[in-house]
Structure formats: C-alpha cells, structure tokens
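Sample pair:
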Amino acid sequence: MTGQKQKMLAGELYIADDPELAADNRRISAWMDRYNASNTLSQPEREALMAEAFARVGEGCNIRPPFYCDYGYNISLGRGVFLNFNCCILDVVPVTIGDMTQIGPGVQILTADHPRDPAQRRQMLEFGRPIAIGANVWIGGGAMILPGVTIGDDAIIGSGSVVTRDVPAGGVAVGNPARLRVTG
C-alpha cells in the first residue's frame, strides 16, 4: 500500500491529515516561525534558511518575510528569484520558479486541488497539480496562480489576476480569469 505522502507527491488523491504529512507540516511551521522573524538577518543568512527548507535555492534568491508554504520540499527556486512580502505557496507537488523571476506582494501559488465529486470531498481527499513558472517572469501583486498552470519565460501576469490556464512565453495575462492580452 502506498502511503499518503507518496500519493500526494505523485499527484494522486490523498488524505492531508495523515500523520507523516502532519509531521512534515509541523516541521515547516517551525521553519516559517524562524524565517518570518528573519527581517534583520543578512541576505546570505536568509538564503541559508531557505536552503534548509526548499528542494533548490539558486544564488541570490530573496523572499521577503512573511512567507507561507505547505511543505517547502517541493519548491525549487532559480537564480535571483524575488518574492515580495506575504506570498503563499501551497506546494503539495512541485513548484518550479525560473531564474530572475519577480513575484509581487500577496501572490498565491496554489498546487493543492480538491475533487469535484462531493463524496470524495467528504472523505477529506485532495490532490495536487504542479506549477511551473519560467525565467524572467513578472507576477504582479495579489495575483493567484491555480493548480497545474505553466507560465512561460518572459511572461507578465497583471496584479490581481487569477491564472487558470497556461500562459505562453512572452505572454501578458490580466484579469479574473486571466486572459492573454495582445501587445504591440
């Protein structure tokens, strides 16, 4: 029998309050307590803290506290990634953010999803779909990136946008739901 954590990592239906996942969540909660009190630490000291929690942290990453996540170990940050204050990443499956991407304050990156079938929801089942954000992307404050979305290199996501589908490289997406804007 596959454990709940293995099911979660595979993007299958799983039960989130499984003891192993609860222990992982307590671990990252203690880490967030330390990280979110790190305003006075130097940038290299904060990078070292990020390296404790995340799958990958490229050189020069900067996340301004407060910051929130589910597990941390599914987050991979490229070189020079910047997340402004109050960002939240629900990382039940991989979240990859490419080099030099800039993310505004209050952005939510949400891989966690729930079954559409009410009987499955009553069983407290959920699942995740990975999110990939390319290099040199700019995501405006308050935007929300929903499960399974891929955002291509050099794209721009407008402030407050709700991104429900993929955005191609160089695309500009704005609104709720976010729609591609023709630029020129």
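The radius of gyration is 16 Å.
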